[in-house]
Amino acid sequence: MVTAYDYSSAVHVDSAGIDLILVGDSAAMVAHGHDNTLPISLDLMLQHCRAVVRGAPRPLIVGDLPFGSYEASPAQAVEPAVRLVKEGGVDAVKMEGGAPSRVSAAKAIVEAGIAVMGHVGLTPQAISVLGGFRAQGKTVDGALKVVEAALALQEAGCFAVVLECVPSPVAAAATQALQIPTIGIGAGSLCSGQVLVYHDLLGMFQSPNHSKVTPKFCKQFGNAGAVITKALTEYREHVEARSFPDAACTPSRCPARTLMTSPMCCRRWASMGGLRLPRLPRRPPPTMQRNYWTESRRR
Ligand SMILES: Nc1nc(=O)c2c([nH]1)NC[C@@H]1CN(c3ccc(C(=O)N[C@@H](CCC(=O)O)C(=O)O)cc3)CN21
Ligand SMILES: CC(C)C(=O)C(=O)O
Ligand SMILES: [Mg+2]
């Protein structure tokens, strides 16, 4: 399982043959630049879900219920779940926590006809009570709490449970105790499956701002961030040197000597043999402009 938040990333994840996509509330952090997952709204999650659904016809798509949309009561939880499925187009929803009230909420959503994925261990929406993105289940009591919460969610009808940031033996014990699959993140290799955030595994989440919120457990399977920065730098340099666009990237001039904007007309003209007109003398590069825009933005 990998997260996706937009059409293009969903196409990538589908093309790679990955079974499940999570439209995670981690979008708040990687797509919107917040320091935690709390600020994202249900409306924004719905937009992300719709974009992902358009890009990924094959994988099972799970949408995160955002913070604040489902905690008040089991009855309240059904409404955002229905919206994620009905308006967002997802196949299932995920909700955090294993306290009795959350288990009841999961049960109510399942009874409404919506498949629910649980999420225990480090539950980022509870950052306020956890005191940060801290590993969970590190004491005997904590480990028992994680396994018992997972069992309760299974009992409530969840079809799978995410185990986030718990010691490997705790995740292994939960996986053995449960009949439904466990999906680990920072929880060792003995879960039924694994999930990672798209930008983390591709090396695209590298803003210095975010070093404190990037999980240390993530392995980078690629360095797309460096590839993107290199390509953008080359584009800028070529534009500044006026070596882009070259003739191959520019339609030839219209025989009627009007400014040509229709590529179709240009292509037809080129296929007829075309007419090479002498190049116009170059205008000097507008060196003032760059300073003007950067200066005005700083103000
Ligand atoms: N980009 C991104 N990747 C994620 O995996 C992710 C998000 N965002 N946002 C939502 C949550 C937050 N996550 C996090 C963030 C940080 C740590 C982290 O720093 N963990 C420490 C443990 C620290 C401790 O035990 O006290 C680690 O060493 O992994 C873990 C999970 C996982 N999720
Ligand atoms: C880290 C995963 C499990 C998640 O909930 C998210 O990306 O929002
Ligand atoms: Mg999440």
TrEMBL record:
GO terms for biological process: pantothenate biosynthetic process; photosynthesis. Pathway: Cofactor biosynthesis; (R)-pantothenate biosynthesis; (R)-pantoate from 3-methyl-2-oxobutanoate: step 1/2. HAMAP family: PanB. InterPro entries: Pantoate_hydroxy_MeTrfase, Pyrv/PenolPyrv_kinase-like_dom, Pyrv_kinase-like_dom_sf. Keywords: Pantothenate biosynthesis, Photosynthesis, Transferase. Catalyzes the reversible reaction in which hydroxymethyl group from 5,10-methylenetetrahydrofolate is transferred onto alpha-ketoisovalerate to form ketopantoate. Belongs to the PanB family. GO terms for molecular function: 3-methyl-2-oxobutanoate hydroxymethyltransferase activity; magnesium ion binding. Residues 288-299 have a biased composition (Polar residues). It comes from Panicum virgatum. Its EC number is 2.1.2.11. One of its GO terms (cellular component) is mitochondrion. It holds the Pfam family Pantoate_transf. This is 3-methyl-2-oxobutanoate hydroxymethyltransferase. It catalyses: (6R)-5,10-methylene-5,6,7,8-tetrahydrofolate + 3-methyl-2-oxobutanoate + H2O = 2-dehydropantoate + (6S)-5,6,7,8-tetrahydrofolate. Residues 277-299 are annotated as: Disordered.
